[in-house]
Amino acid sequence: MKMLINVPETVVADALRGMAATHPDLTVDVERRIVLRRDAPVADKVGLVSGGGSGHEPLHGGFVGPGMLDAACPGEVFTSPVPDQMARAAAAVDSGRGVLFIVKNYTGDVLNFDMAAELAEDEGVQVAKVLVDDDVAVSGSTYTTGRRGTGATLFVEKLAGAAAEEGAPLERVEAIARRVNESSRSFGVALGAPTTPAKGGPTFDLPAGELELGIGIHGEPGRERRGMMTSGEIADFAVDAVLEDLRPEGPVLALINGMGATPLLELYGFAAEVHRVLAERGVPVARALVGNYVTSLDMAGCSVTLCRADEELLRLWDAPVRTPGLRWGM
Amino acid sequence: MKMLINVPETVVADALRGMAATHPDLTVDVERRIVLRRDAPVADKVGLVSGGGSGHEPLHGGFVGPGMLDAACPGEVFTSPVPDQMARAAAAVDSGRGVLFIVKNYTGDVLNFDMAAELAEDEGVQVAKVLVDDDVAVSGSTYTTGRRGTGATLFVEKLAGAAAEEGAPLERVEAIARRVNESSRSFGVALGAPTTPAKGGPTFDLPAGELELGIGIHGEPGRERRGMMTSGEIADFAVDAVLEDLRPEGPVLALINGMGATPLLELYGFAAEVHRVLAERGVPVARALVGNYVTSLDMAGCSVTLCRADEELLRLWDAPVRTPGLRWGM
Amino acid sequence: MVTVALDADFFHRWMSAVSAAVDREAQRLTELDSAIGDADHGSNLRRGFAAAVASLDEERPDTPGAVLALAGRRLISTVGGASGPLYGTLLRRAGKALGDAGTVDAARLREALRTGVDAVAQLGSAAPGDKTMLDALYPAVEALGESGEDFEAARGAAEEGASATVPMLARRGRASYLGERSIGHQDPGATSSALLFAALADTAGAVASGDDGEAA
Amino acid sequence: MVTVALDADFFHRWMSAVSAAVDREAQRLTELDSAIGDADHGSNLRRGFAAAVASLDEERPDTPGAVLALAGRRLISTVGGASGPLYGTLLRRAGKALGDAGTVDAARLREALRTGVDAVAQLGSAAPGDKTMLDALYPAVEALGESGEDFEAARGAAEEGASATVPMLARRGRASYLGERSIGHQDPGATSSALLFAALADTAGAVASGDDGEAA
Ligand SMILES: Nc1ncnc2c1ncn2[C@@H]1O[C@H](COP(=O)(O)OP(=O)(O)O)[C@@H](O)[C@H]1O
Ligand SMILES: Nc1ncnc2c1ncn2[C@@H]1O[C@H](COP(=O)(O)OP(=O)(O)O)[C@@H](O)[C@H]1O
Ligand SMILES: [Mg+2]
Ligand SMILES: [Mg+2]
Ligand SMILES: [Mg+2]
Ligand SMILES: [Mg+2]
């Protein structure tokens, strides 16, 4: 095992200590594993709480701040957080206008957030939930658990976060989050497996010269293994997989996302190919974001997320945001 | 070889196409390999030009924008750019108040920037140069080429960029850049080698359970190979190596930098250890930046850069900046 | 076999045995989870059962129902993932079903476990054949028999149930994302469920042989 | 050996031969550079000499001096790195030293090369023994002899010079960052310099044997 860690057991706590030391704008409860806006609860604002397994940084803790999340609850690496975390976070961010849970669609996340919602409601917090399920790789009818939540989480958190910052009520913030999710689809590719602290080695074997198409963000292998493809071929495949499901009729928001170990140099080259394919298919790109945002530890690879954009979503996208992972306008 | 590329020969051009498509605030000359502020030349402002081999992204192209660089000149992967690039960039950003070249101290960069300066001066552009040489790993007397330029480049570009944005004249911008460099030291560690397109495989072999201490950012092996260390031990070693040379008497700016493939989760854990060591040594941290900023493709590892901070440098650090890689206040 | 009254101590020792087994087998569970999941099942359960046993050791609840309910709550509050709420619910519901009796017989335990397993199926919207822990849990509860005392049969049935997941196509949990590629791998949750019933049989066997484990 | 007058065509063919050699040996040069540098020397020179030859093919300069100067300029404007300015300067300065004579003899070539190599040493502030290209270049120029026609001797001396860098401690360029660990590896730049002189010997040999390469 070669990782920049102390011992596997303290990886998440160590990272939270680091966030606490690095970001004075955040309150980090290392013990209870909650990352909060320093100014939470923000008066008269709907609270946004997300969370999930660690290993996807900057998601979610790096998206806490004005214009995005009020709190994030990191679980162990690739393991959903426990209900107490989200229940406590909800209580900490609730200004009386209710709290939205943004939940990626994985059995563990769904179950734990459901239990948290019950606990929070017992404490008198009004909770709404939105499930993010954007990954077209698992859209077939046999996949009874539904699609996975991946890159669209960033869009949901940013756009719902902007709506909440504007003072929208819970139903409206929830409706926006739901609309963003329904307007978004993703497809991911891995050139290598991530190394988890628990396993101490790559989570799957990928022979030289092969790649995995349709991967998720938890080190699980993809749907299909193929011989190595060029950046352009991968862009064709991924964008077409997304478009087939999304069928946008106007401009899109595009997230060209690195899975962790793919250099930015390569990711920008891939972004060029994604733009090429979208241009060929007649899909205008209203805004694009390129970088490592929804990652899978040190997995090599990338994903493409597209979201059908309209005036309102673009306005919310352009609204100021101030988090460790995403920042503009302030 | 497993990289997200088309062919090795077009890696840099492909990435520039991607930057062009992603960042409407930049003018990217893919053919001539120059990344420019869209509004260059900015009237009455000293122009800042940097550049170097590709593979260190977001450095330098990702640091072009208001408050930082006016232009960046990317070379091939790990290969200094050619003089024509910097000469042209200088001409493009010169508003008549002169241009500062920010050059990392490598033979290739120095020679090519020197030649560019001659060309630019022939065209009537006033050019000053500052060499960045912050890497304490090569400070011994046998290292006649001097120290390498690594993480401090970010500090020099940000702080000199802020000074230029304030309207400071060339001599003053140059003096600030030189002062920042002289006040900064770095030390880096690799847990694995990067994969270059030219070589198509790792640039050095690092057996399981070993790490390289004192690495640079070009896939060159380090000064010393050791058995695997914990994050805390690495922080002790790296911070002490820097402090021994820097001997700060007041607060520091700290860059806790990922080399490319080290997950943010691990990097934050490492940041916690760096803060611990600095606290133990009685060195206050005025500002800290954690992330992948001065990278070496997909190298696993990290580096620590400290810069002695004073009121002026902190003011320049906090000044607004708007680039793809570093952004706040606007 | 002697019909025995199972007390809080029996359940406490059962949970300790599960914790020890999960500890021992953590690597294997994680390996199985790495093939068709996300490589954390072993460390998840290890963390959870260690916390559960620590709480039991500290609070020493004095009824079987309270032991299982406390263990279940601790799993829920320390594991996370899919298995935390699922195993947590299994034990919590089973504990609740046992009420506050000071001792219970094996038949009552079997009924309580059936209630717990049904709750798992409901919570996870899963059914036998979906390649989950249910494929070990249901056969094991069934094999406990009328008396509820066929602990060794339950051990065997759970193991067989776990093995039987190998050719299945996963329809629930992370493994389902692999589609056809989930076939040929044993489900990690079914494997840990077999450990649960092996620990039960071991604990019961120790009681039957007069070795209540205190001497160990 | 026949004393020959070397014309623009000879220099053009020399540069083509270097380009072909660098192409063939690119992988090896990069491997050497990967051991003590940054794994790009092969691709650097390949790109540079291909561009230089393309320009020569297009512009067909008609004096030896103009051929070398153009090749040097192209290296500077296409290679980057340390080797671009260094090799570029070597050729540009040598070309300049040849003036605008239509043909030059080998002694004049040797003098021009010496001028070029001195310029390299000055630009890079390096000396023989620093484990750089100079360790092949200086012995090779020396070995050309009074007449400048000992091309085969120069080939051998360059190769020996390159081999002699193996035990050296690097004091210039990237390899110097390795300190003691630079010992035991052959310098990539010295190796490519040996290719330069091998190509010169091949080109001269072809002339001597009447095969001017046009037929190939
Ligand atoms: N919906 C479900 N119903 C029953 N069991 C499930 C369900 N989803 C997952 N499981 C069980 O949980 C196991 C995985 O647990 P674990 O790895 O700890 O959680 P996660 O999948 O969240 O990483 C699977 O092997 C399976 O047996
Ligand atoms: N100062 C110098 N003087 C002479 N030759 C040098 C000097 N620095 C480097 N070299 C030569 O350049 C070679 C490396 O070239 P190359 O790999 O193309 O450039 P870079 O080191 O910039 O990657 C070295 O092997 C060495 O022979
Ligand atoms: Mg998990
Ligand atoms: Mg180089
Ligand atoms: Mg799992
Ligand atoms: Mg090199």
Descriptors for this entry?
heterotetramer, A: 330 residues, alpha/beta, Rossmann fold, Hypothetical Protein Tm841, Chain: A,domain 3, 2 domains, 6-stranded mixed beta sheet, 8 helices, 23% strand, C: 216 residues, mainly alpha, Serine Threonine Protein Phosphatase 5, Tetratricopeptide repeat, two-stranded antiparallel ribbon, 2% strand, globular, binds adenosine-5'-diphosphate, binds magnesium ion
The largest sheet of chain A, given as strand count, sense and whether it forms a barrel, is: 6 strands, mixed
Distance between the termini of chain C: 23 Å
CATH class of the largest domain in chain A: Alpha Beta
The residue fraction in helices of chain C comes out at 55-70%
The biggest sheet of chain C, with number of strands, parallel, antiparallel or mixed sense and barrel status, is: 2 strands, antiparallel
Which residues of chain A form runs of ≥5 with pLDDT under 50? none
Question: Which class of secondary structure composition applies to the elements of chain C?
Answer: mainly alpha
Q: Any idea of the CATH topology of the largest domain in chain A?
A: Rossmann fold
Average pLDDT over all residues of chain A: 95
Top CATH class of chain C: Mainly Alpha
